[in-house]
Amino acid sequence: MQMAAETKARQHDAGEGPPFERAEYDRRLAAARVAMDAAGIDVLLVTDPANMNYLTGYDAWSFYVHQLLVVEIDGRAPVWIGRASDTSGVALTTYLPAEHAVGYPERCIESIDDHAMKFVGAFLKDRKRGSAAVGVEMEAYYYTARGHAMLTGALPDARFIDATGLVNRVRLVKSAPEIALIREAGQIVELAMAAAVENIAPDTRQNDAVAAISHAQITGTAEFGGDYPAIVPMLPTGPFSAAPHITWSDRRFAPGATIVEIAGCRRRYHCPLARTVYLGTPTQRERDTEKAVVEGVAEALGAVKPGVLAQDVEAAWRKSVGRWGIVKESRLGYSIGINYPPDWGEHSTSLRPGDKTELQANMTFHLMPGLWFDDWGIEISQPFRVTETGAEVLTSYPRELIVKD
Length: 405
Hints:
Creatine Amidinohydrolase, Creatine Amidinohydrolase, Chain A, domain 1, alpha/beta
């Protein structure tokens, strides 16, 4: 604890810490506790690193081992629990007091018998939470099946509640400082897309283009730099463009379509963007598909305003492209904000049939109308913010098939 206290003092001297004012985090915690109360949860164990960041500012590549944030309904400051060597990172990146960063011993790392979740169970018992209603993020990537088994075994008298999506949905409506970071991420992704378009050519290796993309993503602008995105550049080319999530190889670019799906990232806030670069002369079918996609995006954006449902935005797209005989089975888009690998989506709301989330001002989405056929694919996407009257596009990159003869 002494080392953590010293780190906290150095943090203040260096002007480091979380990216937002304390009042912002207090507001977020209060909203999370309202959701906890509605779900009957006494103690929420937050294992999604994006949710941990959202509630405290914690930011480190430490999610490869077990870590979590203990949020109690009684209003006390959250407690971070993780690897002991990472407690100094809590002091450097969050507002939490030193005594609220609790490290488990090194023997718990990758241990089956002395599992980190046993340590968490003992911690909760010491806080008289052994019979509490405990919320856990069952669908979080880093909350493992063994970890859950160890935790429930250590707390046999507790009642466990699936809290998947609880904090994620609190994150849906962004504050003004969050919107500012997403806009900056939008500037970064435009620079990265320009680097992609410049470097996609028949005599260029795919990995060299990705190197240019990554350089632009991290370099950012003269005013602010970029973070590592939660997803590596997607770069399916030629016949591989029929599959949306192919990355890259060291082969040279193939004639035809190359899909570029990337994001700018600023203080963990993402702004994704997808475009399709075409080497050669597109067929009439490909030009018609481009026109259908661009028109469909415009129709979908035109449907955006507070009060409409997420599914209504998708319906506007579906009606538009239906006139071209196009059917898209996959979702049209998803909410965006803070995230860590392996995904930049918020895992809360999707633009698809059946999602009845009511849009509110300052929700942010990636409208991603990807179409993948038997032998090629096309993506021309648009990130946007819901405003009081409609949609603000978060990038100005031209919405078109980018042809390079």
